Amino acid sequence: MKVFKHILFWTLAVIITISAAIYQRTTGPTYPKKAEVKFSNTTYKFKLKRSQEIGEPCVITLNTNGDKDISGTIFYKRYKIDESWAEANIQPKLVDGKELLVSSVLPEQPEAGKLEYFIKLNKENETKFIEQKQPVVIRFKGAVPTYILAPHIFFMFLAMLFASITAIYVIAKDNKNSRKYGYLTLLALFIGGMILGPVVQKYAFSEFWTGIPFGWDLTDNKTLIAFAAWAIAGILNIKKQRPIAFLIATLVLYAIYTIPHSAFGSELNYETGKVTQGVIISFFNIL
Questions:
Q1: pLDDT in tens, 232-283
Q2: What are the structural domain ranges in the chain?
Q3: Cβ contact 275:210 at 8 Å
């Protein structure tokens, strides 16, 4: 019965962690934006790119399901810059046996630089616009080596796994295990968030840290808040067991994981040439 209880607890923790991973993978401003357009009785569904690694061609690919009668134009300009829209024709191209529409390569931007774009498609006598009212924003970033990125992701979700099992053991009043996994959570957060996180940021955007006290990058600040909550919980449990502190820290981590990854992240200010945080740029533009 005791073994079954632990298996049940760990199964629940794994389910919570996988759910968090799926949510982080499918939300946020860097993952492809789903869009669709309908010509006559046929609906075409697309995934529009919102993140681009520097050094590789930035090609926007649209699957037309083998339809060769569709042509189009892509319109783009630098994000938040008052300038005219540039245009590029979209040309049909056969890729892996499927007819695709492949745009001209969008111009490469500096690290954390952004372009916004929308697309016009034509078929026979019909014209359809994709994301014209709210153009898609694509952010450019430097390449992050797999040997840095993979352990960063691993330790961040390991922290979520350990935090989940910690909370479950707290609720089950198993203070011994809740304390053990509470400290393992703190260790995983320290390695994944406070050590590897800034290294990933450096490779991607040439800055180790753009959160408090140097800026307001939400990704960095989320990491800082999560680590602070777990550090406080760890300190409170050094001499005396206070499992409620670990439970509160878990709730803080859960709340942070509900914020889409890379939301309000690093952004290049084209006017100053400095990498800052998107919300701050918008605020000063309004002023």
A1: 999 999 989 999 999 999 999 988 887 766 555 677 788 777 776 644 333 3
A2: 2-28+144-286, 33-141
A3: yes
pTM, full prediction: 0.78
Half-sphere exposure of 98 (CA within 13 A, CB side): 9
Residue in the structure block whose two tokens are 């140097």: 214
Q: Which CATH architecture has domain 33-141?
A: Sandwich (2.60)
Q: How far apart are CA 196 and CA 201, in angstroms?
A: 9
- In angstroms, the first-to-last Cα distance of the chain is 64
pLDDT in tens, 62-106: 888 777 788 899 999 999 899 999 999 988 787 776 778 887 789
Amino acid of residue 242: R
- Cβ atoms of residues 234 and 186 within 8 Å: yes
